[in-house]
Design goal:
Structural class: mainly alpha
Protein name: DUF2752 domain-containing protein
Helix content: over 70%
Transmembrane segments: 12-33, 74-96, 108-126
Organism: Flavobacterium chungangense
Keywords: Membrane, Transmembrane, Transmembrane helix
Largest sheet: none
Strand content: under 5%
Shape: elongated
Number of helices: 5
Number of strands: 0
Radius of gyration: 18 Å
Number of domains: 1
Length: 131
């Protein structure tokens, strides 16, 4: 019974990693194509200073980062490089963990993944959530 439960947990963990990876790839894909598509949506941040709306320009900045235009990305949003790196590293980690998940202690792997992701999230989004 113990083996069945851990096998089920392992497969569930792998599925969650795949879902996260797909979501991150969708964010990158959307950001890359965003200059070519327009939904004519207005931002609630329009006209507000960056101090009140720290996420303003993140999509445009991500688009520039994917085109390796880092200077223009920073002009759109000064926090964009850190936030983009969070998503990029999480994407790499999701793929890597799905490969090595059977080679290690599963409980330790999940705990390490959760702690790493939480700490890296706090580091990457610290400037966006705190005034």
């Amino acid at each position: 019974m113990k083996q069945i439960k851990s096998s089920y947990e392992l497969e569930s963990y792998k599925k969650i990693n795949i879902i996260f990876a797909l979501l991150i790839m969708f964010i990158f894909f959307y950001s890359y194509l965003s200059p070519y598509i327009s939904f004519r949506l207005s931002s609630s941040c329009h006209g507000l200073p960056q101090t009140y709306c720290k996420s303003r320009g993140l999509t445009r900045a991500f688009s520039q980062i994917l085109r390796l235009n880092f200077e223009k990305a920073i002009l759109f949003n000064v926090y964009s490089i850190k936030v983009f790196l969070f998503f990029l590293i999480q994407l790499i980690v999701r793929f890597f963990l799905n490969v090595i998940v059977k080679l290690s202690n599963f409980k330790l792997l999940i705990f390490s993944d959760a702690i790493f992701s939480l700490l890296f999230f706090l580091f990457s989004f610290y400037d966006l959530v705190l005034i």
